[in-house]
Design goal:
Blueprint: E1 2-7, H1 14-25, E2 28-31, H2 32-42, H3 45-55, H4 62-75, E3 81-85, H5 91-103, E4 110-115, H6 118-132, H7 140-163, E5 167-171, H8 176-189
Parallel strand pairs: 1-3, 1-4, 2-3, 4-5
């Protein structure tokens, strides 16, 4: 089973590359945001718990998110693997994910981090904001805060995967196809 953590700051191209990986390798996209919305819309116990917390402006605890990921893994036991998008965001989440996967006789194959400098990220997000209508992609100050937050909080997660010799950093600037070829060379090695 090929389980990849696709990592990178907002605007690095994770969404574009995820779609290409799904098509090429038959992987299942695992986005925690999508999982939360799905569990809530289905009215599952975890979804109801998450909704109650979110309605009160609270973050959904890691154990609830891990429970949702567990449900998704169980529902796709015959899958070829998963792309973890937007998770883990902290070392505690990475550790919990490792424990969960171990209970299912699986593990993270590797983390692929798309590296893009902050100026390019801001340029990309502003362009995306014009097309998408997303307010968080239209305000340069908000974009800078999001990039700063990513840089502050995710560096330790990269270190976690470096310690396991599963971290791969690639240049996220170039053509979509060039970047995808680099990602595929890493994925194929797993």
């Amino acid at each position: 089973m090929l389980n990849l953590v696709l990592f990178g700051p907002p605007g690095a191209g994770k969404g574009t590359q995820s779609q290409k990986l799904i098509e090429k390798y038959g992987l299942i996209h695992l986005s925690t945001g999508d999982l939360l919305r799905g569990e809530i819309s289905q009215g599952t116990p975890l979804g109801l718990e998450a909704k109650k917390l979110m309605d009160h402006g609270k973050l959904v605890p890691d154990e609830v998110v891990i429970g949702m990921i567990s449900n998704k893994l169980d529902a796709n036991k015959d899958g070829k693997g998963f792309i973890f998008d937007g998770f883990p965001r902290t070392v505690a989440q990475a550790e919990a994910l490792d424990v969960l996967l171990e209970t299912k006789s699986s593990s993270i194959s590797g983390m692929i981090a798309l590296e893009v400098d902050d100026d390019e990220l801001e340029r990309r997000l502003l362009l995306r904001g014009k097309d998408s209508g997303r307010p968080d992609d239209a305000n340069p100050e908000v974009i800078r805060k999001r990039i700063h937050e990513y840089n502050d909080k995710t560096a330790p997660v990269a270190g976690f995967y470096k310690q396991q010799d599963k971290f791969n950093s690639i240049n996220g600037i170039g053509s979509v196809d060039e970047i995808f070829a680099t990602i595929c060379a890493i994925a194929d090695a797993y």
